[in-house]
């Protein structure tokens, strides 16, 4: 399957992507992919170094005739989001991604593809390994742990780079030039509940929600896709309104930057209330399926009897459900300055209640710091009303647009010349590393661009082959037109 990818054009880029995808590269476990990049540099007689946190920097001199051009940082991140379908047997720590060519798409067999940001990494590798391209001096920056904290960008050595231009290759629309992005913060809630045993006349049921599309909690948050944690909570709320419901377990979602695709819970209620409670479940199920029939055609909601477990009491069960119902999810505010740009959002990413121990994980994003503070305070307020302890971590800044950027002007003209149309100049709701890198290197001139990548952070992720070809042509021409020193 993956061999077919190596036959695609531009062949050197796709071969680098195939080599990269053979290396396991989960966030916070980048040792193997870091060594892979170091070995690559040595194979091509390029200067390579790592900083204290583990970022890899590879430097390449300017090609003949380009020595008088400004040097450029090409930047992408090494780690990838690891998500798989429930029925897919796959060990991300040991296996390489199994890729499939399907028409104009490259996708993976039941897992995320890693085009985010592997295509960017592969494109930089293609530049570094080429003996024919025109380019200025290159500083290739490969950061670690972008997906779960942007640790590499945050801890980047401030003195390790010297260029004044940075091209970030981590966006996912090939007709866009990004000049701004949202900042973000992780909001985590924890609490312990006392568990209770119930009489023998209580039945036990497991609720399952699955088949949702999921996706990137920044780039896809405006689409109104289903959040499995929210849907599962709605079902339980309908049930508790028709009887004495007790919660035993809840498990939904995973990574903070992925919209939850699956969730499940274990509940108990009196046998005498079985009909009214299950009827309420069915009514709610039908309503939810109707709401999402066009957006989530593969949504599956089910309930079945299961073994008895100890549970939260009535008051704690109600408080738990009211809290999840009250935590904001999705778009919180649209930007008044950029058309169709989400300014702030929250993703109720993970809910884990087991043996009385609760952890809730949210990722709050905003391109405006004061609005981010407002939204994280709202999430905290809902949790604290239900005696959940709240912790903030992983705070990173947004990237403020610079409409006077010299590279933006060059990139716009090049795009129009190459593709006979104007590019869209945008700010995005994802958390690009540019905001952090701009703090580390004040005054650096940055833009971001990339090929069409769809459904990133989900097993349905794919990249368009023709778009990669367009992206490569654009990158190649841009490097040939870097301004003079």
What does this protein structure show overall?
With 485 residues, this protein is of the alpha+beta class. The chain is 30% helix and 27% strand. It is built from twelve helices and 21 strands. It has helices at residues 2-5, 11-21, 31-43, 115-129, 151-154, 228-240, 274-291, 314-326, 369-384, 406-419, 434-440, 465-480, and strands at 47-50, 56-60, 72-77, 99-102, 105-108, 138-143, 165-168, 176-181, 183-192, 202-210, 246-253, 263-270, 300-305, 330-334, 342-354, 357-366, 389-396, 424-428, 445-448, 453-454, 462-464. Strands 9, 10, 11, 12, 13, 14, 15, 16 and 17 form a nine-stranded antiparallel β-sheet that branches. A six-stranded mixed β-sheet has the order 1-2-6-3-7-19. The longest helix has 18 residues, at 274-291. The two termini are 46 Å apart.
